[in-house]
Protein 1
Amino acid sequence: MTGQFAVTAALAFGLALPAAAETVSTFKLENGLDVVVIEDHRAAVAVQMIWYRVGAADEPAGHSGIAHFLEHLMFKGTDTVGPNEFSAIVEAQGGDDNAFTSWDYTAYFQRVAADRLDLMMGLEADRMRNLALLQDDVDTERQVILEERGERTDSSPGALLSEQMRAAQYLNHPYAIPIIGWRHEMEGLSRQDALDFYARFYAPNNATLIIAGDVTPDAALALAEKHYGGIAPSPDLAPRERPQEPPQLAERRMTLTDERVSEPYVFRTYLAPERDPGNQAEAAALTVLAELLGGNGQTSVLPQALQFESQIAVYTAAFYDGTSIDDGTFGVYVVPAPGVCLETAEAEMDRVIAEFLVEGPDPAALDRIRTQIRANEIYARDDVESLAYDYGEGLSIGLTPADIEGWDAALSAVTEADIMAAAAKVFDRKNAVTGWLTRPDTATEVAE
Amino acid sequence: MIRRTALAALAALTLALALAAPARAELDIQEVTSPGGITAWLVEDHNIPFTALEIQFRGGTSLDPADKRGAVNLMTALIEEGAGDLDSLGFAEARDALAAGFSFSSGTDSVGVSARFLTENRDQAIDLLRSALVTPRFDDAALERVREQVLSNLRSDAKDPDAIAGQTFNALAFGDHPYGSSGDGTLETVAALTRDDILAAHQGALARDRIYVAVAGDITAAELGPLLDRLLGDLPATGTPLPTRAELLLTGGVTVVDFPTPQASVLFGHVGIAREDPDFFAAFILNEAMGGGRFTARLMSEIREKRGLTYGIGSYLYGLDQAELYLGQFSASSDKVAEAIAVLSAEWARLASDGLTAEELAATKTYLTGSYPLRFNGNGPIASILVGMQMEGLPIDYAVTRNARIEAVTLEDTARVAKRVFLPEALHFVVVGEPSGL
């Protein structure tokens, strides 16, 4: 062979260290802080994530959005670090930082060169207990979260429908409330609301620390002890027992009509069980069910029936996420082709689901999904941050490291019988919310 | 899940710690030329048994004739819809059975292919990808089905404030040049596309005279050479001539597009600077200090942090093959847009007249040089970065020299280039919504 090697450039960083990726170690400090170390020595990069076991579903009534508002305010300084200085220090190290809030957790992270971990962990430990907030910063940041709501939710008819459907899906559980908050309650969130929430929930025994990247477990544990080990635990953390759903006896339906809608669609969610510690088989079956029904735009059951065999729809999908503390949702979604009304689209969607419940999955399709599950274990090793996310999220909702390590095996073990049992249980219209997104000019055309 | 966007303050940068070079390891980029003459950049990493492959074909949707606008986009969407003796479903099943991942995308200046495949069935995955690139079927049923999806997207764009802002801005900036209209086409042009148009777009866009390849992962240079010929050697030698230089027609001002939304979408910009311009790195630093997406940039500080007028704002140097723009965007409630635009314009003028402070320059350099190595965090990102470097005409040692070029920029350079790059009188704002006071 000729001309294979023309130029070789050696860079001052990179990938060629012959170390195995992905070795996971777990520890617990005496003050209750869970520590997970995920090794990947291919590049001299590390990520610190701290996951607090508190989210929007833990908010006091009438204060929706406070978990997320506090997440923003966590960048506004401590007794020793000035407002917004946290991010400035991270950036001065060439690092990136950010944070995110869900119903079940609030997480903060920084990506830095691995030799900057000491500094990052000192900063993160400091703001676990020493937050200091100026009233002016709180007032300005409240405007920012209202703008965020405007951008993410109020500007999008689809996001508004999803918010309304979620509120109807949960009769009693706080998953009904949007993470960003209801606008009228966001407007009233105060500095003291944030500090009260912070004092109650931000503590080492309510958090998981993840260190991922070019670091050894011993070194990471020593740094964790140094920075976090001296922080006193919170003495009165209550168990996370949210109000649970009563039996749902009546299907719910709604139509949101908005002149900004271009493509009307029908969207259905069903209440669905979540992954539980030591018991994630049903969630695994629902995950495979969603993939079979609508996870693949070409081969899945819904697109094959409604986009290939017939041209009822231009787009279909099914999805499920069982990584939550309490019941989640299983969703199906059909965007009809021009000239097809939502009533027909919904009827066809239900016909396909009903036929699936009789006929079951194509064994070849199930085989392909199993192959992809195995392959994803290989591909996932290229992305240590994604693995860090899986551990942070899983541990934050009460799963054990064994559950998280065992998830791929749980998916691979799903049988056709498991899928049919899970499907028969989840597709219960009494547990369902059906939403139609329409334009004003089509509202009458599609009305039942 | 909600992510906080940027946050910022300039006050705290006295801390600016000296940034040592990250721990040393070696990233070897090899240039591999196949027996048939196709060149690729390769980073070998045998830790994980898979390979990431990135291909770019220069040209993209700008190759469309005016009356066939959307042809390259629709063609690209159809590549995975059947090839060789496999129809759409058969192709997808074969791909999934190999657990390979292929994605195809069209952009203003290129058609892109991203692939990842396991070492254990690499040859089969490459043969399947080859069939999609070289012998796509473009069956009538697939054409009609995907055409409907494109038309659906076009109808959605017509009611999407961000998309409306983009199309309005591009039309003002470039008029009849392909850059002046959406590469997705219009409802009329897409409805009229025939299978022959798609075949012509395929022959014109996917040719060997415009190809860039980067590979990272579990493959050796000796294995890659013949693989390149098998995958790409049967593509046409030459394709459609690239578009000509685009004249920038934009002038300063505000264009309001009335749209019923409580929060307006704003796109702003003026002329930019070419990648090969000697002042590019100074401009790059200036933009990072002004409109970088991170928390200490001036626009984030002044418009979000101090005044709460938006959730996020950023700007970027947008280098097209045939034009240069300096663009930015944000959203703001109807009653806040006018104030945000006033603050932004004042910041634009202030940077042009006063330049950066020495502390700001030092902090921006530290961020840019420190964060650069963090991008190379996996086979997929590495292949993507390397193909982008080739598209931009950068040398293979660029990743080694890039930080030195940033360090070489002086405060005097930024003061001089700020007057050249920040042109407050030339700024044009497209506002889609119902803004008050504009």
Protein 2
Amino acid sequence: MNDIINIKELKKEYRMGKITVPALNGIDISINEGEFVAIMGPSGSGKSTLMHILGCLDTPTEGIYSLNSELVSKIKKGKLALIRNKQIGFVFQTFNLLPHLNILKNVELPLMYAGLSKKQRTSTAKKVLSEVGLGDRLKHKPSELSGGQRQRVAIARAIVNNPTIILADEPTGNLDTASGSDILSIFSDLNDKGHTIIMVTHDPAVAKRATRVIKIVDGLIQDGNIS
Amino acid sequence: MAISVKENLIVGFSDFWSRKVRSIITVIGIVLGTMSIIVVLSLVNGVNAQTMKWMMERGGLSKISVYRNWEYRHSNYVKDYFTWKELKLIRSLIPEAKYFNPQQQHWVRHSKDDKDYSTRIYGVLPDYSKIEEWDVQEGRFISNFDIDQSNDVIVIGTTVKEELFGNKDAIGAVITVNNRRLKVIGILAYRYMKSNGAFGNENAFSYLNRQTFVPLTTMIKKGSGSDETKSFTLKAQDAASAPELREKLNNIILNLRRGLPVFRVESAKEEAEEMAENSKMFQIIFYIISVISLLVGAIVIANIMLATIQERTREIGIRLTVGARRRDIFVQFLVQTILVTTIGGILGIIVGLSILDIVSKFLEMELVAGISMIFVALLVSSGVGLISGIIPAIMASKLDPVEALRYE
């Protein structure tokens, strides 16, 4: 199988004045293409930090992170925008849509930063939005949609650039059970279609959907780093 | 992968539009700033143009005037007038002067049959018409022959003609001035210039139309009986040589009056230059005031932009997450600020021009904003956007994506 993510001895420390707070204490993970991995752990365990590093929003203090055979940990912070744009799709607990843009524009956003023409953007975004069942709501603002629908917009935005990995941070945390399981089904479907999914959660029911569970405690992997 | 300038403009514009109230208030501020630049500078220019026009109408830039210096307290040891002999001497010392006209003036009653009209009468030489560039519309002006013979002739302004003759023919008719019968030989051309005074639509030159003229020799010999002449005007070959001639003439007159400044000698060209100099100073002062007020505007806008960026920290985080580069964020916010101020600038120019239109109708005065002024206003307003937008835009682009996403 093809290693899409390879992490070795990854460390992350935060400086708060004179004190250094360790968040990740040396982590090794490898994830194959097409996996659906759940990362679990109590709050403060470092799972969000790991998520940010995986998503190239943050850089590790030490260690190696290679994504799609590219040594991301060596790339400077300023150059990571390209990786975020092409390789990573983010889904957040709080949806993180731009409230003043309609959902079509929201989904077009990554394509705009990728430099696609207006025409290409609109047709691609429309297609992806109808895949998540929102093809008839293109002109709606996020505030006019339910939580489940908003998360579907966020998923559409995450996959519109056809990224290497989809990162989801508690994607069902703000949803009721019914729409939460809808969203999880979408993730399962995406996984069936071959997308690699990494999901942070503390809900064991959510984690059940995953093909593998990685548990983190105090910045260390406790369990599950087996392919 | 790059997001184009056009794309950034669209993003900036939709940002502008999605925050209408704030954007419009900012625009109004800039509108007021640029509008006042246009209006004030055009007013200054308009007044200058008006004064210049007056000067050109009254003999142009090569004219030199000599008159009693009222700032100098007259002493009994020196004369505060020129005698006929002195005038002849002065004329002979400045052969380079093209025209030369000493003049006396009195206030007298002019009568024709049962009609009376009291007005100012001037004793002049034929050169008067040349210096003032003012000819007759009918008949002829005073000639050298009239001067030599001290002829009993008179040239009258249009108002005098109307008052004494109405619609009847005046040329060849005789009017009585100071018990002396004078033949009307000419009627001077009607003079008109729009007045920009508080009373609006008045003829600034109406006093000229009320004047009458006789040969200076006739006035001296048959009228006043005195050759005391208190003022004279002359014309240099051209405007360029006028200051030099003025200097020379001033020295001659000082020599004739023991070095005492009894008379003033003024050249229209130098007055015009002085006026231009003064107005340049005014312009600089107005520019400084405008620049300061626009700088205040820039600081306010920068402040608003900083507040906006704080409000939109999360949005910036989201944009960074989906692949926006720091440059994209920077350009987005800078474009937005420049857009606001440039729109303000354009509207300010439009509003300023319409105000000028109204004001110039009201003042009966030609007020035109030069192309350069419009260009400056536009440049300044965009510049304000650049200055006030650059620091907030840098701050926005420096945000840490993780921090920005966490921002509530």
Protein 3
Amino acid sequence: MFGRLGVDALPFYSGIAAGGALVTVLGALAIAALLTRYRKWGVLWRDWLTSCDHKKIGIMYIVIALVMLLRGFIDAAMMRAQQAMALDSGGYLPAEHFAQIFSSHGTIMIFFVAMPFLTGLINFVVPLQLGKRDMTYPFLNLASLALTAAGAGLMLLSLALGRFSTAGWTGYPPYSELGFSPGVGVDYWIWATMLAGVGSTLSGVNFIATILFERAPGMTLMRMPMFSWTALCASILMVFAFPGLTVATLMLALDRAFDFQFFSNGLGNPMLYINLFWIWGHPEVYILILPAFGVFSEVVATFSRKTLFGYPSMVYATAAIALLSFGVWLHHFFTMGASANVNAAFGIATMVIAIPTGVKVYDWLFTMHRGRIEFHSSMLWAMAFMVTFVIGGMTGVMLAIPPIDYLVHNTAFLVAHFHNMLIPGALFGYFAGYAYWFPKAFGFTLDERWGKRAVGFWVAGFWLAFMPLYALGFLGMPRRMEQYSDPAWQPLLIVAAVGAGLIACGIASQIVQLVVSIRRRAALRDTTGDPWDGRTLEWATASPPPPWNFAATPVVHGLDAYAAIKAGRAPADTLPLTDIELPRNTPLGVAVLGLSFLFGFAMIWWIWWLAVLAGLGLLGVILLRAFDDHPEKTVSAAELARDDDTTLAEGRA
Amino acid sequence: MAGKRWAALAATMLLGGCALRDAPIIAPPGPVLHTTAELFVVATLLMLIVVLPVLVLTAWFAWRYRASRRAADYAPELAGSTRIEFFIWAAPVAIVLTLGVLVWHYTHKLDPYLPLGPQPYVVEAIGLDWKWLFLYPEDGVASVGTLAFPADRPLELRITTDTVMNSLMIPALGGQIYAMAGMETRLNLKADRPGVYAGRNYQFSGNGFPAQRFDAHALDAAGWQAWLAGAKAAGALDRAGYLALAKPGVLASPQLYSAYPATLFDAIVGQYRDPAMCRPLSLAAGASRVRTTGR
């Protein structure tokens, strides 16, 4: 009846696990209590959970990312503490628990922090930058969010019910096969990432359709803001890469549940999985990083008070990175015994990516050149990124050289390298975007004092936490070590733990920043809709923007459309006001969330009847939506004119 | 903020510098690391041509063009410069071209499948949960949790696993190569001088993973003879002994064996390759002799 689910699934096997479960459950109860206490359930339902508004959806994605960032960071801090103390001793974490933690840390940070963060930013910003009212497929957008949220829910549930995977975020077979990893851990990993992965594929489709076909009149591709360009390239990567992961994890699920032999040691071939995984995995790195590059492009231009240097170069470099990213996956396993010809070819292909990446860094630098740079916290994130990211780029090229890779692959050096790319390269970019677009979303700016403190703590913490890992890699320390016996490693690991402590201060600063900013929102209010003297169209409408973004669709005459209007170089043209249609609220998004969560849950615990029911339910939701003849509501031109307080309207008047 | 960053950087570098004094890449005890270190230095210097200017220019531009200074050469509409853009494309292209040639050359030179001299001493390595079993076909002995070889000959490891994927590396002597069931991979190493070098599995393989280590003893002629004599005096590894060894568990202490079933390595590889043999290792009837090198 309940498949593998039994009383033994409860986390009473260790105090720490029970504690984690307790925190999760209490957290959920506390949120529910607060919502009830302040009578916000109705608001949550009407304004958020049922809304197809791309801005609301974007914000909800980012809320998921920030909540999961806390969970992922706690994992990280636990690992740092364990390794700092585990010289010739078991530390405080049993080996199996340590393995669960490094697996969930990676999975959460990639799939449930970075992906929702960038998807949220793209969702919120791109239609505004393109001068449009919403995504092309608003309901698909809500459904993608629901799938991601269902995956995140499964991740959180894995704390309380059953144990998580110990196979790392990459889930390599044969270790992840049932024979070596019995239990539900790997299945949690498979279904959480698969739901989120399908959500990302659908998001990618939506973004591509929106960006290619939904731009304001006059906005040719080569007039698109850089962030929208990076969003387009990242979306193309999502659509082409994510199915690789979906297929690989699905095949693994079949191996586990139904004794297929795709990747088993016997009849199957684990190397097949490893290829499939990285055919997704390498483009994934650029899915994470390109939108952050886009944020840096917007931020550096805005706060240098200059137009972006070398815009065409930036566009071609971005497109080149996207294209090349599909041709380098083999560098993740130079050590699998391929011939020197193959390894050298993939090594060189990998280094070629450094060319467009280097070009982008220099284009940002020359955007600062002859500017008037204002050190807003988002600009500080960008500058910290530039000086730190180039180090990661350098170590990346080292890893691309097969003979060097043989030595440092699977060591702390590799861990240092990819954190060097993903923290300054991706996360700092998302944080910059958060600080930059927050006033657009909520109508008040974030407190700068705490913002700058957060930058300082994060940057110092990053250097302390990860530079020692490069050294440890050269000292031969493997990744994923629960304990060790080489005394030379311990001092460096203690420094790394101190770095994690500083990052904790950075996160605390961000929480304080949010609280302080909400309390002082009257003083921080931005009534102009354009607090930074921005250059692109999102700043031409009110903050927060009305549900229709722009009452009248703006007409674009060149790059940096809004800056040109403000400087008087272009007219503030708009299309005439007409009646428009906006997507109506729908409870079906929540239905997708619930049903896909149940489906994933059933697949994890092998409760087949429930899986069938939930699957049929999802099909029903799709049919229900397909036969809904009136998913839109009409807003009249008169109503739009009444509420039109955008700068463009002033220009028109 | 910037001050804090530099202090952190300086402290880390100092600490890292001290710790790295003994790192194999700084003081290589074998030819593989020698050559790799040489490649590492050249590659680093080449990349610094691009990286150093970024570090310097970010700081310099931030200072020189800070808003409060209101620099006179402010150029808000400056959208590009053909000359600058030529250089920012051409410089990395030139560096990557150079690096590409180096990578091609060194990847072939340092191919782990190439023996590092005539008559390498061959050892067969089998990854188990969570220990390494070594077979010495030339001398008919075996060891688990410890590896020995004559220092005056290059070493060729032929590697497989009878469990999940493993990765064998002795960082002082050279890089790593995966060990996969049903396949044989190769790793050629050489020590310049006798010594004891730490080796282990680098691919996470479960709870006992931290314990899956061994000491690699590169022995001089006398030491080697003494070691062989010690091994010959130990008991033999039979099928039952192997099957017990292959069960998941951490080794209490390294063991030597005077003998092992002659076809053991081939049987371990073969059991995964021949569908008919897809069942727990049966060493009977001279298991299939399929042999692939993972290539």
